[in-house]
Structures are given as C-alpha cells and as structure tokens.
Amino acid sequence: MSAISKHWSELTAGVDCATLSHPGKTCHSHILFQLRTTVWGNMQFFIPVSILRLFLLIYTQKSVSWHIVRQTLFEFSCMVANGWVVSNSWSACFCAFYHWFGRIINNYSVSMAALPGTLVMFWMPQYVQMSHARAVFNVFVECWIKSRNHPWMEYARESKTIGTVVFMLISATIGYYAQRTKAVEFWFFAPLKKNSNDHSKTPCFHRNTCQSYILDGMKTCFTFGMILELARKLIASAPRIRRHPPALLGAISRIRFKFVAFLTLYNGLFRFVTCFLAQHRRKVSSYDSTVAGLISGLSYSLSPNFNVFSLAMTAMIQNIWNYISEQYGGLDLVKRFNRLSFTSIAWVLLMNYNMYSRAYYPYAMSKYALKFTDVCSNSQARTASECLAKLFLAAN
Ligand SMILES: [Zn+2]
Ligand SMILES: [Zn+2]
C-alpha cells in the first residue's frame, strides 16, 4: 500500500473528496451525519474504558466514594469530547482541504486533516493526556514495526527468540532506572526501595516473608491480567453482545490465558530473583532489579505480543525520562522540556500518524487500533481506507 503515497498525484487526479471519504453523499450532509453519529460512537467506545478505570480506582484506593465516581464521569466526558473533535476534524478538514486546493493534496490531506482536532488534547485533564498518549504510542510502535519491509526487520518480527531477548533487555532497563528514581511508573513489577521509617525484618525491604511477598505480587498480577483481558474482550465484542447476549460466553472463552500466565510469572520471577539475590548476600545491591528484570523477561516467550512489547517500550522511555529529570532537573533544557506538555505533543504527532497508517497500512495496525479508529469515527476511517484501496486497485 505504500505505493499509494508514491503515486499519489497520478492516482488522485480528478478525484474529489466524496469519492475518497463520503461516496454518494454531499459534503454538507456527510458532515452533519458524522457530527451526530460520532457522539454515540465515542460513548460506545469509552463506556467500557471508563468502567475499567472506575474499578481500578476503587481497587487502588480501596474505597468507593462520590468523588471517584465524579472524577470518572468527568474524565469520561472529556474522552468522548476529545474523540468526537478528532474524528469530525478529520471529516471536515478532508473536505475543506479539497475545496480550498481544488484537489486532494498529496497524502497530507489524509494525515493532517485530524490535526486541528488533536490540538484539543492540550486542554484535557492529565489522566486523559497520559492514557491517550500511551495508547497511541503503543499503536504507533506496533504499526511501525509491522509495516517495515526490510528483510532483517521481517526476520526479527517473526522470531520468538529475538523478540524475547529484546524484551529481556527492555525489562532489564526498566529495572535499572526504576530502582534509581523516586517517581513510580506503572509497570508489572516495581523494585522495592528502602524508606527512612522502614522497619522490615528481611534484607529485601518488604515486611512479610519472601514467600508471601512473591505470592501477593503474583495474585495481584493474575487479577489484573484477568480484568484486563475481560475488559479487552468486552470492548471488542460489545456491539455483538448487545445484539446477541450469549456471545458473551464466546468472548470469555477467547481470553488469552497464556497472556495472564505471562503477567503472573513475570512479576513472580522478578520478585523471586530480587529476594534470592538480597537474601543470598543479606543486602540489596543497586543492580538486583536489573538482573531480575532481565531474567523475568524470559517469561515473555510464553505469550509474545505487540501490546506488551510496546507497553514495555513506553515504560522504559518514561523511566529513563524520570531519571534524567531527577538527576539533571536543574538544567535549563530539561526544565524547558518538562514545562511543555510532552504527552500532548506525542499525542498530536502520533495520532496524525495513526490516521495516515489507517489509510495506508491498515494491515499493520492492531485489531484494537482498527476498532477504536472505526468505532470513534463511526466507520469514517474504514470507508476512507477502503475507498483509497479501491482507487489503487482500479489503477493497477
Ligand atoms: Zn466532501
Ligand atoms: Zn524477600
């Protein structure tokens, strides 16, 4: 499909916005229809996301309060508004660009039409900025890796051994930086750090016995993995379940148990290795979590998948950045960078890349990414991608 971008001008000569984005409709009626239908489209996508967020807040704060419910509702409306603006920005600007320039300008028409809408992220609450930037970064990593066609890249992509080794190195890097920073980033393990009012009796900084410390971690990761998988299945098959409720059973049976086993073992192995090393020399060394991160990374071979891989890359970059800000926070450049909303900038750049990929590399995107671009845009993204493919096929 990358050939489309190379022969763009020949392909799109004499083609109007209707042919590519709204066949059989006028621009005006198309945009009115989109404005209306994407409200429900976005709500449909963000309802399960917000229910999961509510459960996680209740789980971490160990209480249910009106405050938590209000916070989740507020974030839900922000996410719906954001998705609505991005989607309609694409539909409206795609037509507007065509009418201004009299033709569909290069592939920028496809990738830049969402730009004005993505800028809204700068006014979104921190949770929305963070979660959206992470999600779109994961989509980007997966799509970028899958769409490269260099022979080495193709080989590395297919090889379970290379995938596991790279994951082990990323995991070791997370362990190295996470032990050296005060900020705590979400990841499936967290190195224990000594605090001043620590009265633990073990040399490895936890209160209970090593055995219960390891089992507790595995239990939490198992629960988390099951909730995550269940939510993923529910989000993906919500429309089908509404039409046909017994489809719920089918969705549950397709839960990736190997993935849950990986999460559980990953955390368990990490805790086991750190405890083993600390008990062995009766003292924690600053390299224990690096070694533990490396060894526990082996469990990735149980369930190699792009979601975990790109999530690990995000966690690694964030931990490295936290380390740089904590160590060199006084430097002017670091201060200036910290003041910028880094997550919003990442979202703007990557979301526009996402729109570009949806059109040119739909085969390289994860099913989840295709789902959210299509549900949130009420199939506008799919229609445009299909029209583009038809144009390409007709020319060949
Ligand atoms: Zn139009
Ligand atoms: Zn221990």
The biggest sheet, with number of strands, parallel, antiparallel or mixed sense and barrel status, is: none
Order of helices and strands: HHHHHHHHHHHHHHHHHHH
Helix-residue proportion: over 70%
Could you tell me the mean pLDDT?
87
> What separation lies between the terminal Cα atoms?
12 Å
Percent of residues in β-strands:
under 5%
Shape: globular
Contiguous runs where pLDDT drops below 50 for at least 5 residues: none
Describe the structure.
With 396 residues, this protein is mainly alpha-helical. The protein has one domain. It has helices at residues 2-6, 8-12, 17-21, 27-61, 66-101, 108-112, 115-118, 126-147, 151-158, 160-180, 210-243, 247-253, 257-281, 288-296, 306-328, 332-339, 342-360, 367-376, 380-395. Helix 8 (126-147) crosses helix 15, helix 10 (160-180) packs antiparallel against helix 14 (288-296) and helix 10 (160-180) runs parallel beside helix 15 (306-328). The longest helix is centred in the first third of the chain and has 36 residues, at 66-101. The mean pLDDT is 87. The protein binds zinc ion (2 copies). One zinc ion is lined by residues 17-18, 22, 27, 95.
